[in-house]
Amino acid sequence: MYELMFKNTSIRIKLIFLFGLSAGVALLLVTTSSFIYNLYEYKNTVVKESIKLAKVSGKNIAASLMFEDRESARSILQPILNDENVYSIKIYDTQGHLFTTIDNRTLLFNNWSADKFASYPDINLSVTWDYIDVLTSIIHNNESIGFLQITSSTDVIKKYMQKQGLVSLVISLFTLLIVLLLAFWFEKIFSRPIYDLLHAIKDIKDNSEFDIYLVSHTKDEFNELYREFNHMTHEIKKRDNLLKEHNINLKNLVNSTNEELVKTQTNLDEAFILAHTDPLTNLSNRRNIMEQFDLLINEAYKNESYLGVIMLDIDYFKRVNDNIGHQAGDIVLKEVSRLLKKNARDNDIVGRIGGEEFLILCQHANADTTHKVAERIRQNVEQKIIYYEAEQSTQVTISLGFCSVVPQLNSREELIKIVDEALYQAKASGRNHVTQGFI
Known about the structure:
This protein is of the alpha+beta class. The protein is 58% helix and 17% strand. It has helices spanning 2-6, 11-60, 62-66, 70-77, 155-207, 221-276, 286-303, 317-324, 326-343, 367-383, 412-428; strands at residues 86-93, 98-102, 123-127, 131-140, 143-153, 307-314, 349-352, 357-363, 386-387, 393-394, 398-405, 434-436.
């Protein structure tokens, strides 16, 4: 129940509810007890008046009862009935027989039996929600000569209850309103320091600034809490300033070290590229592709998979250098290298192993696949127009020898010899050909 009501409510609402509830309960207890006490006292007063009326009336009609003068008794008691709260009056003789009665409403109330009057004391009182019934002895010369019964309404008590209840309700509501207003005032006294602390903490979190100083206007526990909070922020600020100074020095050192590391890494990367790449064509150089060749042979041997090898060179490349110059020859080498890389498969390794000689290693490529790669390269080189100056161009062809094996005990040198012989046969066949070599 508590969680449902207060789990998501603020401290402000909880304090107001606490003050209001406490005051409401106290007010309810005070109002209820006061109402019950006043009602009890008023009821006793009405009952006492009824008893007093019965005793006085009994004395007045003693003579009428002695002489059995009913009319005189009725005449004496008739004024009492002018009180609207008196319902009826009955007179009994000493034997409990009804002597006379006034007002026909007596049938609504107690009918006293004659055989029980002897056991009644001087005064007998019966109080119900609707009426007060008083039975008293009529005394003459210290002797009982009869009984007088006066029955009165309780309407006056009920009206008093209604009036008293309404007044109590109005006073309670007015008092509760004042209490709630006071609760709002007291809530500010108790919750304001808490919210000041909360706002200060949020400001520190959002801005990471500790230049916050809280001032307490009280001498209670909140004043001590503020003092400790201010001391904490002051110490944190000192620590941060010290850390900033050290961080600046450390940052300078780190930046300097990072610059050296980046420079070193760049040099290493450049050295690696120079060690593994042909500077003119950006293909693998002879050393790198031969190392890769050995690795692929071992891998194909272990996996029992095909390895395709293609060797090629540019037809009549010496004529290119002699006729249009070495600078144009370099352009031809670059363009042929680009076509080799473009038309080989993504996982194929392409390298330059000599002046105009190239080697291509094709993983998981049988004879048919290797032949298709070689033929596609040959056709694209044959069709390519190579511009070496603004409006001057040339065309070249290539000859290719290839083989495809599942390595057993084949060495790199053995495979190179096979494709080299196939390349020689392609040239002998008129160049611009693809020839397959066999083990």
